[in-house]
Amino acid sequence: MSFISALQSVGSQLLPLLGIFLGVAFSMTILLICEKRLRPVQAMIVSFRAITKKMIPLTLVYIVIAVLFVFSYATAGLALVWALPFMFNVKGVLYREMFGVGIEVTVTQEGDDDSSSGDGNKEVFNA
């Protein structure tokens, strides 16, 4: 995340639109690292390629989100109640539509307790 922020900062100092472009282009990087378990540089490359292929529709979506945040500023932060959840939900939907979401189903035998301590596969998060 620090490297992405540094790239965006340098891009903003060179050209403000370049900084905005880099911010949008690398917006899915953290999600790719967490969900797809890509290396950070690979995730940056995949995010950049995917976002640049759909740049015009995604730019319109991010403009709507930016307008909501400007409106939130104008209402002394009261509209953040709607803007922040909207932003995170839109980002999740965009990620799901662009990259898909991997779901793993585990079957337990009847009588197993959900509160088992550390048994089973360490790769699966047991919520």
Structural account:
By secondary structure, the chain is mostly helical. The chain has one domain. 67% of the residues lie in helices and 0% in strands. It has 6 helices and no strands. The protein has helices at 2-14, 16-25, 29-36, 40-53, 55-74, 80-99. It is globular, with a radius of gyration of 19 Å. The chain starts with a helix and ends in a 28-residue tail after the last helix.
Please report the number of helical segments.
6
Give me the secondary-structure category. mainly alpha
- Ranges where pLDDT stays below 50 over 5 or more residues in a row are none
* DSSP E strands, number: 0
Q: Tell me the radius of gyration.
A: 19 Å
Please summarize the sheet with the most strands: none
Please tell me the overall pLDDT: 86
Percent strand? under 5%
Residue share in helices? 55-70%
Structural domain count: 1
Form type: globular
End-to-end CA span: 27 Å
Order of helices and strands: HHHHHH
Topology (elements, then pairings):
Blueprint: H1 2-14, H2 16-25, H3 29-36, H4 40-53, H5 55-74, H6 80-99
Helix pairs in contact: 1-2, 3-4, 5-6
Overview features:
single chain; 127 residues; mainly alpha
Describe the structure concisely.
With 127 residues, this protein is mainly alpha-helical. The protein has helices at residues 2-14, 16-25, 29-36, 40-53, 55-74, 80-99.
